[in-house]
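Morning. Coffee machine broken again, so started the prediction first thing and wrote up yesterday's gels while waiting. Chain of 105 residues, entered below exactly as on the submission form.
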Amino acid sequence: MDNLYFFFIGIDIHKIKDCGKVDFFNFFVETRIKTYKMRDFTPLWVLEELISERANLARWAVKNVVHMLENGATIPFIARYRKEQTHGMEVDKLREIKTLMEELK
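Came back before lunch.
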């Protein structure tokens, strides 16, 4: 993910409003191109909510699973000893949550 870059062109809107017409050459010269790495952005979604919608699971259970996975708990541990916090999720659903978590981060 560190090699992914986004390119944005920063535009000074006030200069465009003041001149009335847009001279494309000056418009291009006055723009600034900036590059940002993926880790410079914060996502526009709440991880637990998106996973619960995609996997069709209860939000509170997904939130608990995400919290436990982030704190180092393994899937077998969660499946066996934390059934009350996961609403009795099967191992396949826990793996699906972990996969979605890794994809969305």
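The mean pLDDT is 75. Going to sketch it on the whiteboard this afternoon.
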